[in-house]
Amino acid sequence: RRLGQFEHQDLANIAWSVSKLSVRDEPLLESIAAAAIAPIREYIHQDLSNTAWSFATLAFPHEPLLESISAAALPPLSELGPQDLANTAWSFSTLQLQDSPLLTSIASASMPKRMQFTSQCIANTVWAWSALALADLPLLDALSAASLSTISHFSAQSLANTSWAFSPFALGARPLLAALASASLDSMPAFGPQELANTA
């Protein structure tokens, strides 16, 4: 079958599969993108997020597709869960696409759900703003507070990733970074090379 005959969920699944396998087949990705753009408004929220994540993971910035995803995602962003919000922000920032309306909407949708964010979702969301040299202070403050309230449950990886994500905003996140430093000292035996590098 030609990709144009595939259902939109099939296209999202193919994109997700090749990204999980780290297969950067540019003709295939171009074909997926071309086939996905027309029916993009039929995608469910998770398929939008997964498709953006797939292209970002493979460092394949297909701007027409991502613009379509952004336009389709904006109206229902409040319905996205924390992971989809974080993944969408991460995807656009990874590809260095500073889509202000989308990021503003993600920030607004994230605020009421901040206490539902896992440490990984927090790290990915904060990193997205950092990577684009943006500072949404209300969002960063809210996610910092959410981290502080659950830091005792953080794994070594979560401690390292959260430290790394918030470090560009050190002045505004001093209480969190101090708490992360203290918790990291206690968990240091569990740190691997990547966690040590991120924390440093």
Order of helices and strands: HHHHHHHHHHH
The CA-CA distance between the termini, in Å, is 50 Å
User: What proportion of the residues form beta strands (DSSP E)?
Assistant: under 5%
Number of strands: 0
List segments where confidence is low: pLDDT < 50 over at least 5 consecutive residues. none
- Backbone shape: globular
> What is the helical fraction, as a range of percent?
55-70%
Structure classification: mainly alpha
**Radius of gyration of CA atoms, rounded to a whole number:** 18 Å
Mean pLDDT, rounded to whole units? Answer: 87
- Taken together, the total number of domains comes to 2
Largest sheet: none
Number of DSSP helical runs: 11
Q: How would you characterize the overall build of this protein?
A:
With 200 residues, the protein is mainly α. The model has no long low-confidence stretch (mean pLDDT 87). The chain is built from eleven helices and no strands. The termini are far apart. It has helices at residues 8-20, 26-37, 45-57, 63-73, 82-94, 100-110, 119-131, 137-150, 156-166, 174-187, 193-199. 66% of the residues lie in helices and 0% in strands. It has two domains: 1-75, no CATH class; 99-199.
Short description:
The protein is 66% helix and 0% strand. With 200 residues, it is an all-alpha fold.
Features:
about 200 residues, mainly alpha, 2 domains, 11 helices, about 65% helix, globular, RNA binding, RESC6_dom, RNA-editing substrate-binding complex 6 protein domain-containing protein, FAST_kinase
What's the arrangement of secondary structure elements?
Blueprint (H helix, E strand, L loop, with lengths): L7 H13 L5 H12 L7 H13 L5 H11 L8 H13 L5 H11 L8 H13 L5 H14 L5 H11 L7 H14 L5 H7 L1
